[in-house]
Amino acid sequence: MTDGAVPAGDDGDATGTGDAGSTSDSSSGDSAEAVSCRALDYSFGDTKAVDGLDLSVRTGEIFGLLGPNGAGKTTAIRCITTLLPVPPDIVKVFGHDAAKEKMAVRRLLGYVPQQLSADAAMTGRENVTLFARVFDVPRRERAARVAQALDVVDLSDAADRMAQTYSGGMIRRLELAQALVSAPRLLMLDEPTIGLDPIARSSVWEHINAVRRATGMTVLVTTHYMDEAEQYCDRVGLMHRGRIHALGTPGELREELRERRRAEADEARKSGTTGESAETAESGEARSDTVPTLEDVFRDVVGQGLEEEGGTYRDVRSTRRTASRLG
Ligand SMILES: Nc1ncnc2c1ncn2[C@@H]1O[C@H](COP(=O)(O)OP(=O)(O)OP(=O)(O)O)[C@@H](O)[C@H]1O
């Protein structure tokens, strides 16, 4: 079983908590909040991967979790998918508790992990059919649902070709079809466009957007690409060292920084005694007039750029196998 499959019937919880989904008040999954994490912690031995994370994803939005390598994004996503065990009353998906109602949570979500989740030695259709079986899509509906999922990502014509003949962008779209075949209410994507060329990146996003528009599905996505977050996410959370340091729409975050810069420039102008050179003061003023980018916001909040921590991002990107073809 790949990481991408979170089968409804496979309870992988090491803590052995039961599933109270069918008896819960919230069993219909009706909740204005698609995802909620309250003070979520997760450690691997001595490494604190997630450190008191508070997160609220609203139903129907595209929420981007941004952060450098090692910020804890994947770990947080895996806690929400129930692939990593969490204590009760910390993580909820459409009101269902990820510890107590694991099966109910799994039935509501589709997950495209960073690692490859398509099998090179099967056709596109066979790959999606496998996910349809794992996710318990009723047998009589299966063929139609598989065809529909392939159609949504524009892979109908290539459906009966082996996945090893697909380009990197096609593989990512195939993985999207795998996650969509169970008609999830929440789609979680971990670095969906990493390693793809700009055209393939925008194609993947166009397909995500089209499904979102058609179904009202909620999307939670992690990305390093600020331009994508800016263009496609309704709101973003800037994550660093296991927690969110800034949250809002890209426009709000940029405007907040612009205001802070203006206030600082005013302050410097008023005091005039800060010892800063005329040149520095001038550059501060000029800065306060330009609209900052999300990268500027990130740098301001955590004191560094997205690509500066961890040092292994390029390695990760270069080893992301869907960047080329399946071997
Ligand atoms: N299975 C594991 N065992 C030990 N440490 C881990 C494991 N998975 C993640 N970590 C550590 O937890 C921290 C957070 O990692 P995580 O993968 O969640 O970050 P990320 O923001 O998703 O980064 P990336 O973009 O590289 O995936 C890092 O310090 C990482 O080394």
Automatic annotation (TrEMBL):
One of its GO terms (molecular function) is ATP binding. Residues 252-270 have a biased composition (Basic and acidic residues). SMART domains: AAA (SM00382). Residues 1-31, 250-327 are annotated as: Disordered. Gene3D superfamilies: P-loop containing nucleotide triphosphate hydrolases (3.40.50.300). Pfam families: ABC_tran. Residues 35-266 form the ABC transporter domain. Residues 14-31, 271-283 have a biased composition (Low complexity). Keywords: ATP-binding, Nucleotide-binding. Coiled coil: none annotated. PANTHER family: LINEARMYCIN RESISTANCE ATP-BINDING PROTEIN LNRL. This is ABC transporter ATP-binding protein. It comes from Streptomyces camponoticapitis.
